[in-house]
Amino acid sequence: MKTGKFFLAFVALISILVTGCAKSTPEPVTYTIEMSEYSFSPNTLELKVGQQVTINLVNKGTLAHEIMFGSEAMMMNNRPSGYQHDMFEESGSEPMVMGEMHMEGEHDEGHTGFMVVLPEEGDTASITFTVTDEMVGEWEMGCFEQEGVHYDAGMKGKITISK
Prior knowledge:
163 residues; alpha+beta; 7-stranded mixed sheet; globular
């Protein structure tokens, strides 16, 4: 009889330990980023691996704005023109986009990589993706409209991704 109670207590303890040690998937998160002359608000995002992320974009400015995600701004004719490293391309991730213009590859402005453009005031779009292990680290979001003028004027932000 004592052996049976001891066994049940042992199994209960192991179950508690296993449940406590198991990694849980982080809760999904939604951000709304307002794009204006010349900023993103908010301009800092903190994400975790495994998290489903939805970013709702709203053009609150009077000019066209875009958003790109990457690291190491590249220069073209001494002007910032996109990122050397595209966050989605390097992670092998394919975000889902709903709304305005979404482009990948090489663009007319000389940019390469993933980009969402909101050409007019009031335009909206939504980006949804799941954060992968390959995304861990610090990334930047930036707008390179008007040959990099927006980026130089401060239209950039930071994305920190942790495990």
